[in-house]
Amino acid sequence: MNILVVGAGFAGSICARELVEAGHKALVVDRRDHIAGNAYDVKDEHGILIHQYGPHIFHTNSERIFNYLSKYTEWHYYEHRVRGVVNGKQYPFPINRDTLNQLYDLDLTEEQAAEFFEKVREPKEKVQTSEDVVLNSVGRDLYEKFFLNYTKKQWGLDPSQLKAGVAARIPTRTNSDDRYFTDTYQAMPLHGYTAMFENLLNHPNIQIKTSTEFKDVLTTENQFDHIVYTGPIDAFYDYKFGHLPYRSLRFEREHLKNVEQYQSVGTINYPNDFDFTRITEFKHLTGQKHSSTSIVREYPTAVGDPYYPIPRDENEKLFKQYQALANVEENVTFVGRLAEYRYYNMDQVVGAALNAVDKILGK
């Protein structure tokens, strides 16, 4: 088969590689001038490896997915840590026993920390919104200190207006584990994500065209047996039912000369101060040694490239209209965060892409 793959991020690149491994040919197009999608990383003018579209930290519990990517990269083992700033002080986040002890000047054991959460939580019979999730778990004070304003900045909505799944991603711990993720496999591609994608797409039967709109290659001369589409599903159908809402980000990058380390951990959240949500220092993530450092501040915005599908019932309803059209497509496969309007982690996109290929080959 001659296959057109729209998008050179995780979903598109993995589908392309697996389909050519099965004997087909693939043309991969991307409207941006580079491969690797939002995971694209590049050395800035000071020689620091930065993530162009905000921090991407790989973690998974799936041995299959970790082993799959290991064919295309070596790894730098890295466990991400985050601090949340409340009243000018930094605390471990997600909230754990140390957060409670430092914030309230206590000396709780694990058992006492569990009792503390039980005492302050506001039990909800029906947990439907993000606000419900957090109040049900840690109560009002911690909700207001760490979650409420961060969520408002991140999504432009009150937590009571967002589905439960958004907050459910963040655990609460009674121990002192201050890692952001507890997955079995936590690592960064040793030479960066872009290098990993170059390896993924390095095959004689894969042709790549960047700075290319996919509709521009759908000409009478170019005949494709199948399309793998990883872009926004509403764009594919020319916004027939209206635009699906997304949250975007604006990045403010800064290089700090002769500053070896700017902050103590990879990311620091600012739930209650400033217009940005967080600052990430890339050298923590990559393990790069350098006498200076580069950081990025993230400003959530309603305009710009689509990053995060906004999890609300009315948006899900609109997506379902597009999905109904997608379901009857014979020769188009929709896969990925934008095409499926799903808040996927990177490993989940890898899994979705591998499953999509199985279905295409099964046909």
From TrEMBL:
<dbReference type="GO" id="GO:0050660">
    <property type="term" value="F:flavin adenine dinucleotide binding"/>
</dbReference>
<keyword id="KW-0274">FAD</keyword>
<protein>
    <submittedName>
        <fullName>UDP-galactopyranose mutase</fullName>
    </submittedName>
</protein>
<dbReference type="GO" id="GO:0008767">
    <property type="term" value="F:UDP-galactopyranose mutase activity"/>
</dbReference>
<feature type="domain" description="UDP-galactopyranose mutase C-terminal">
    <location>
        <begin position="145"/>
        <end position="343"/>
    </location>
</feature>
<dbReference type="InterPro" id="IPR004379">
    <property type="entry name" value="UDP-GALP_mutase"/>
</dbReference>
<dbReference type="GO" id="GO:0005829">
    <property type="term" value="C:cytosol"/>
</dbReference>
<dbReference type="Pfam" id="PF13450">
    <property type="entry name" value="NAD_binding_8"/>
</dbReference>
<comment type="similarity">
    <text>Belongs to the UDP-galactopyranose/dTDP-fucopyranose mutase family.</text>
</comment>
<keyword id="KW-0413">Isomerase</keyword>
<keyword id="KW-0285">Flavoprotein</keyword>
<dbReference type="InterPro" id="IPR015899">
    <property type="entry name" value="UDP-GalPyranose_mutase_C"/>
</dbReference>
<dbReference type="Pfam" id="PF03275">
    <property type="entry name" value="GLF"/>
</dbReference>
